[in-house]
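ERR on first pass: missing label on line 2. Operator R.T. fixed the label and resubmitted. Corrected input:
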Amino acid sequence: MAFLIDPEIEERVGHLEIPFNQFGVDPYGISRTDLAREFTILRWFYRHYFSIRVSGVERVPAHGRAMLVGNHSGGVALDAAMVHASMFFDMNPPRLGQGMAEKFLNSVPFFSQFTNRLGHFTGLPEHAVRLLEDERLLMVFPEGARGTAKLYPERHSLVQFGTGFMRLAMKTKTPVVPFAFIGGGEAIPTVMNAYALGRLIGAPYVPITPYLLTVPLPVRLEIYYGEPMRFEGTGSEDDEVIAGYVERVKNVIAASIEEGVRQRKSKRGGRSA
Amino acid sequence: MRVLIPGVSSAIARLVAERLASAGHEVTGIDPRPWPNHPPAIEIHAVDIRKRAAEDVFRKRRPEVVVHMATVTHLTERSEERYRINLGGTRAVFDHCRAYGVQHAIFVGRHTYYGAAPDSPLYHAEDEPPMALSSFPELADLVAADLYACTALWRYPELTTSVLRLCYSLGPTGHGTLSTFLRGRRIPLLLGFDPLFQFMHERDMARAICHAVEKRIRGVYNVSGPQPVPLSVIVRETGRVPVPLPEIVFATMLGRFGLPKLPRGALGHIKYPIVIDSSSFRAATGFSHEYDEVRTLRDFREAFPPPES
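pass 2 clean. output:
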């Protein structure tokens, strides 16, 4: 076995609809070897460390362009990593969920290298359009950095959604698959955000937990994928029209979170979820 | 056609000249640098494009097509001289084109026009502005020459102007920025960064320029070959040894230990990718590359095996 690469996962990576060349690299620089190593590591977190429950994965299109749009849950990109893992481990054939990374990440050594090799490019409209026109699957968190900054008591809330994703979805005729992610706020219970510390390392902030470190706890995480939503138009409509469509997506996600939290509470006998 | 190539002695320009000559065109070259044993069918004038003698060549030969390849891209040349050659030379070429009735002028530029920056997109389109000049001002002359050539599109509507932005070349002649970077046994890289590099075989590059001549395209076009690959793959496949260094160490070593003395901004080019979308060029000319990335790297490695340690 190559270093930290499970042969079974390596074979599964070969089933992704990604046009790797002879060097195992796609036209965007995504590396087959790095994906196999990443998923080998992620599998342990996905299958063993966290207790993950996924529902509605069959609603995600098996092929072609699509945009997974959901809420941020947890102070770091734990939600994105688990949705990414869910697309790989729970879909048959597997799909590669590609995230849109925060701009600062590309200038940080190693983060730059790894995000690019794994297909998570800087969140630029040009990247999103090109990837969608190449029939890729994008993961979008319209709350942006505001969403990951939610503190523990706000963990099931939604902050303001950006509208750029909707214009891109309409322009590229891409279905939007809303999803709700629950449990990230318990895995990383943020009590405060250290903005000054963040500036020191080039990040917007660093989430601080009661145990200080930003290390996720082994809790139950849940992902609910909703029915694909399609929005007709060119993407150049008035702000009010776009905001109305975004609100529809946000309402679906909010309803899924509410339902998920209710079920979570009932399983715990009414205790706080 | 009567074709004039300023800068004909460069490696790619020679391939272009030979290809056009063998296709039956009447090829004349201008370059103060020698081209020993050039094909007899190609007439060479050893003059500087900025001098009167170069204008005489335009006057006497009356070219129908001019392929301007007399720009300096390597950064070891002094900035002032580079500026004079690149911008002054480009101005002279377009002035002469207009004065002597040239029908088609091709400016052969570089994809580095777009700049390398952490927030710039992969696959630049032709309508994007030049970025990252603030971090790499030494490239200003090449960007200015490119933009000056673009002005001919509206200043001289009677002249068909093509501005080509080519990615790096690689091949058996060993000329060009990327080939020079790969010349040694150990290749310094920036620790924690592995940008995509886009290159095309030098023969494909010459073919692409000839396609632009034949098809007489008008406008600005990116020109590239096969898909880009990470720099680490290029280093590995050419048999070189990667030496990843922290940026601060790398910057300190520039100009020492056998590393070229480069401006600090040049580090951006081994930190972030510059990748271009050449679909417009391919659609306009029907060009497709013959050498894929595997064969191009193999050809370079066979011509330049890794030096013994």
